[in-house]
Amino acid sequence: MSCGKKFDSGNCVCDILREIVDAQNDVIADCNTSCEQSINDLLGDTGGNGRDTVPVLLYCKGNCKPFKGFGARRDAINDVLASFYFRVKDVDDECCATLELLRDPNDNCDDPESPVKQFTGNLRATGICISVDLECFCHVTCLPAITALS
Prior knowledge:
Helix content: 10-25%
Number of domains: 1
């Protein structure tokens, strides 16, 4: 897949994430592995029944390390959680994205050391969203489409 089929902002990460948002919104109206394959799985082109999320990992420009986001639930502001895995909720015209942290509901580690140590195969939406400038990223990894909303 090139850097997005429907968008051409000049920012590859931004264009791919916009395409993911469009695909996810086709599945729900709410806030072999490649991005193209994950999008096809989400849309049911390969039998993706019930899937609603393409989990993504983002890598920062400069150091090319995986990006880790932090946030807290409204009812537990002093219970800060971190995650390397995100569900793209929205991407605006200036390539600012709203990302929802994905976590394993049974994972007790609030601040994982790496995406490999965090991943359990049971990612779920947390309801915790952050805003990021997609110009800060140089790479996106898409995981296979999953059911993260319940």
